Amino acid sequence: MLHLKQCQHLKQITQKCLSRIHVKTDKHPQLFLSRTFALAELRKSWHSIYSLVGDKNIILMGPPGAGKTTVGRIIGQKLGCCVIDVDDDILEKTWNMSVSEKLQDVGNEQFLEEEGKAVLNFSASGSVISLTGSNPMHDASMWHLKKNGIIVYLDVPLLDIVSRLKLMKTDRIVGQNSGTSVKDLLKFRRQYYKKWYDTRVFCESGASPEEVANKVLSAVKRYQDVDSETFISTRHIWPKDCEQKAPMKFFSEAVIEGLASDGGLFVPEKEFPKLNCGEWKSLVGATYIERAQILLEKCIHPADIPAARLGEMIETAYGENFACSKIAPVRHLSGNQFILELFHGPTGSFKDLSLQLMPHLFAHCIPPSCNFMILVATSGDTGSAVLNGFSRLNKNDNQRIAVATFFPEDGVSDFQKAQIIGSQNENGWAVGVKSDFDFCQTSIKRIFQDSDFTGFLAVEYGTVLSSANSINWGRLLPQVVYHASAYLDLVSQGFISFGSPVDVCIPTGNFGNILAAVYAKTMGVPIRKFICASNQNHVLTDFIKTGHYDIRERKLAQTFSPAIDILKSSNLERHLHLMANRDGQLMRRLFNQLEEEHHFQIEKILVEKLQQDFVADWCSEGECLAAIHSTYNTSGYILDPHTAIAKVVADRMQDKTCPVIVSSTAHYSKFAPAIMQALKIGEINQTSSSQVYLLSSYNALPPPHEALLERTKQQGKVEHQVCAADVNVLKNHVEKLVQNQFI
What we know:
The chain is an alpha/beta fold and 743 residues long. It has 34 helices and 22 strands. It has a six-stranded mixed beta sheet with strand order 10-11-21-16-17-20, sandwiched between helices. The chain has a five-stranded parallel beta sheet with strand order 4-5-3-6-7, with helices on both faces. A five-stranded parallel beta sheet has the order 15-12-13-14-22. The radius of gyration is 27 Å and the shape is globular. This is Threonine synthase N-terminal domain-containing protein. Belongs to the threonine synthase family. Keywords: Pyridoxal phosphate. Its cofactor is pyridoxal 5'-phosphate.
């Protein structure tokens, strides 16, 4: 959050940026803002306001018992600056009595007012200030403090705080004598701490005050160094002159642009942030939302999205729109196999885990001066998830962001098709393409790289194109959370002790889901092997086994698992870039060769490196149906076809020496004909809605998906556009949609 004067300053800078570029359209003159220029200007302004030089304060905030006073003294000693404890140095000196006496004298509500007034009459600069536990409950005093400092939230596990307070026997906590337990009182106060903090220090159990103080200094350094976390293209070629800087992008720009201008994908310039063992252990008892907040704050700089605002987005994304309060629960299937259920979101697939959050990230990052058209290629589940996610934005954002999803007209299940078409709304449309997913995905990439066309849309309609496929970093990043959360749930449920390794088995087509698991391991999750499970379109399995990516003689097969009916795996480029020590020149050569010659071969040393972490195999259609049938007979659990493929491959490839987490990427209701065939149910020629209702009567696990059942009731005749497999035809559709939405 910014003080009012700072907001006005940012507004003036934005207006200054806007005034520099004036563009005419047929309708009226309008302003068009270069997003890169505008974000750079805003970022510079933010830096000049918040830079901790000279008179800025470090303000420590947290519950009673968090260690604010002790940590503040250590920081003051390290920096050689003044240390102010609000309790001792302001309140007691102002009142000439102890804080506990004042609280007993005036009561809870009046105490908060008196405390706030005392802080409002105080000012300091270049100091370390330790707040009281109740300061954040008084808005005016917090705005006053925030004007001249960074508020650092010392986030200590709740049980640690309760234990400390018992030892301290403190009698000066506001609300302590109201009959509310200390635990409930602390839970209530968290909403105020989340409201005000600029940066969070996650204080794991057992961390010493010295360790926490060092974390605070690191957090403050990161906060003020707004240029420290940048992104590059996977195809960026590093200059031989070390003094020449790479063309850096910030998180905001990577999310807005989606695809790099050279055709590569955005990746962090530096390594993924890591959590230490103590930090991971402190997350074992946390909720999914709490885990997401901690992990994503470490991956998104507060200059791009302030931490408190990010927390609000996460709470909105993973709220009541998920059928299960655990969001992505882990279920023990049998033996050493566990199912990670990723289908409890509103559209019944794992895409919801990122696409309920990604639209909020996107809407926050875009400058206010432009309209944005999101282009999405879908092999089945992404389309409805994107349309649903972006429809949940507020009215103002929906007026400037529109979505067009392109799907293979005859290459998705009947239910998926009905779901995509039925998810259309005022700012989102579905377009069927007379081809396969690879054509849809490749065409969208070509549209992004067509500077004449994108420039025309920008100048003529003030509209910028972007993507919500997993090529967009803002779409891929939230997926890291559920892989980390699954491991923590196994620890929490007592199946493993923290530090014990697990394998993960993931049905894989575009490589995004399994890549998110790789990033989770990079952050510290002890994943041993990544098991890549393919269907009959097993180009990835062959590549992992041989190092040869070859689609020359392959024809895309339509299978029971359409979400992985893919031959060109986009996110593989990100992983190869990571393995090849960020060799952008190699990525250019390999993926240009794939475009031109439809194959490439990596060197033996890279094959060996790949096979250290990855194993792979594929599953036939018959094996897929047999796995659905046998699993239901033995455990009463119905696997969707994608999950069945992963189970078959896990059974075949996993060595049983450690647990394996199988990603269940969709609810079985979306593939009712395949499930009915697998379970040998006779009424297979019914409508898709009656098939879903029939399956829901089987009293199987997982339970019926209520949102999908509700969708079947709405399956009237909904129109959608269909176009030929021609990039120019797709461009015409995009332009017409832009005209209809924004002009």
